[in-house]
Write a structure and sequence with these properties.
This protein is mainly α. It has 20 helices and no strands. The protein has a domain of about 80 residues: Tetratricopeptide repeat domain (Serine Threonine Protein Phosphatase 5, Tetratricopeptide repeat).
Amino acid sequence: MRCLKRIPLFLLVGLLISGERTWEQLVADGRELASQRRYAEAETAFRNALGQAESSGRPERVAQSLGTLANVVLLRFNFTLAEELYGRAVSLWVKLQRPLDLAEALGDFCALYAAKGQYDRAETVFRRALSIREETLQTEDPHVARSLCDLGYICQMRGRYNEAESHYRRAVSIREKLFGSESAIVVQTLAKLAELYETKRQYGKAEQLQIKVLRMLEGALGPEHTSVAAAMMELARTYHSQSRLDDAESLFKRSLAISEKALGNDHPYVAVILNDLAAVLHAKHLNKEAKLLCLRAVIIQERALGPRHPAVSRSVHNLAEIYSEEGQYRDAEPLYIHSLSIAQESGGSTHPDMSLILSHYASLMRKLHRNNEARKLETQVRRLQSKTEEDDFAKFLVDWRDLRRQEK
C-alpha cells in the first residue's frame, strides 16, 4: 500500500489559519500564536481575520481586526505599518460612535508613540482616552485605572513626577478596591510606583515596595518569568543608586539571564538591562567590560527601534561617559553631540535626560580647555534646572509607552 507523503509544516500552518476558519477562530489563533511570541504566524492569522471582516461588511469587526493586527505588527517593530493600522481603527470607531472601543484603540495608538519616544503626542491622546472613560464609566472602573497608569507613565517619562505619583496612587486605590491588595494587577501598579520613587531618589520607599513586588511575583509566576526579571532590574537600580554595587550587579546579571532566555539576545528589553549593568561596571571601574555592554546595547536598539529613538540617546551617552573617564576625549565628543541631537529631537528641553547630557558634555569641554563652550552649556543646564514642574505644566496639556502594553 502506498503511503501518503507527509504534509510540509508551512502548509499545515496555512491550513490552520486559512479562510475556511471563522473570523472568531482566526482571531483566537492569532492571539494564541502571539502569546507564544510567534509573531510572524500571528500576523498572518490577523491578516486573514481582517480580510474576512472586510468581506463581511461588518465595520466593527474590521476595526477590531485592524487593532489586533496593529498590536502584533508593533511587536515586530514595524512602526510605520502599525501607525497606519491604528489610525484606520481609530477612524472607524469614531464613525461607529463607540466611545469605549475608541478609548481602547487610542490607548494602543499611544503605546506606539511612546515606543517611538514621542511622549508629547502620547500624552495628548492618553488624556483623551482617560477623559472618554471617565465620562462613560464609573469612577472606580478597571479601564479608568489603566488609563491612569498610562498617563502616569508618560508624566514620569517627561519628568513630572508629582503628577505621575498622583495618577499611580489613584490607580492603586481603584484596583485594590476591585481586585484586592494581593492581586497581580495591584502588584504591577505598585511596581510602577516603586520605580517612580527610585527616580525621585526616595530609595527607602522604593526598596520596600520593590522587595514586596519581587517576592509576590516569584511566588505567583516562578523565578524564571520575565516579570520577575523586570522586578529584579528595578530593585537593582535602587541598589545602584545607593552605591550597593555588588548587590546591583548580581541582580542585573540574574535579570539579564532570564530575559535573554525568554526574549532572545537581541530584544530591546535586553538592551535596557545591558545599559544598567554597564553603568554598575563603570562605577566599579571595569570600563572595558562596561564599554562592550554599551556597544551591544546601541547595536540592538538601533536595529530594533531605529537610530533616532530616545533609548539610543541614553546608550550613546553612557558610552560617551566611559570614553571621557578613560581620557579618550576626542572619541567622547561626537558621542555626546549625537546623544544630544536625538534627545533634542524627541523632546528638547522637556526630555528627562537633556540636563544630564548637557552637564556631562560641559564637563568634557572643561577637560578640553574649551571654556567658552563649556560656559554656554552650563548656562543651558542652569536654565533647565531652574524650571519648575508648575512652570512647564501648561504646555504639556495641549500636545501624544517599552514597547509593549504593560497591562491589558
